[in-house]
Amino acid sequence: MTASPIASADLEACRAAIRTGSLSFHSASRLLPARVRDPALALYAFCRLADDAVDEGQDKTGAVLTLRDRLDRVYLGRPVNSAADRAFAAVVEAFEMPRALPDALLEGMAWDAVGRRYDTLSGVLDYSARVAAAVGAMMCVLMRVRDGDALARACDLGLAMQLTNIARDVGEDARAGRLYLPLDELRREGVEPEAFLSAPAPQPGVTRVTRRLVAEARRLYFRSESGIAALPLDCRPGIFAARHIYAGIGDQILRASGDSVTRRARTSGPQKLGWLGLSLLRSSITTVMPRDPVLHAPAAPEVAFLVRAAARSALPKGRSESLLAVLAQLESRNRGISA
Known about the structure:
By secondary structure, this protein is mainly alpha-helical. Helix content is 69%, strand content 0%.
């Protein structure tokens, strides 16, 4: 077994951040082998702390620009003096993490900082690709998996998990002035977005759109499963666990008739234990079952750029034009605030 490239004190700090900030991932990660679990904890801690700085901080613009600079330093091998940054820099070097993947995450956070909303489901998936499917692609890199089909299914899982997050957090987001539901679907249901944001309530149109988002997540969860059999055998239980735990959140939303405005879907400790056991069972079955042809389905168009980057089939030179454009927008806004 290869020793972890991460300093033990930094790894423990990352573990503590995940334990308090992401119970679902912490539960699923217990089934991953140490060679993947340790760098995954570093990856998730870096991503989680960055996301919290943008979501919960008063200066969202400054948080994104700071993250840009932190990523620059990580890729120069000179991370800032924090446990999460040092640990992530060690992961980037040890696994040759393509820069386009954390840059995609940065772009999604930049979209949050400028308050972008999404007219269609495809727009929501564009956002989900950046803030979640990019993490799925990075997880494959940590498993030393660069096959395009497996990466496409990992991105399906990331999309599904983010759609579940959006469906769960409709009320919480609305009360913070954020809206991620597709605007065209809301309007077809007779819901005016600004009116909903001014007085969030579980009106029928909102709950129907929320349920449709959960249904789309379910489709993607099932599609993602064919890719799990393409992962290393000892990694499969942890990924099945993530799939079942997050899908369980979606089930709770449906049990509440799609109301995630007045309540927040939660799963219990016993439920998580049950899904962990199911994941171990399903992982053993994948060793004798034939490969599912769904494995070879084309990547969703919204995640194709992530698959190409992780597979190293088309490594971009420098940051994408869309990322540079939104960063320039934030720079301009920052200068206006400072003036």
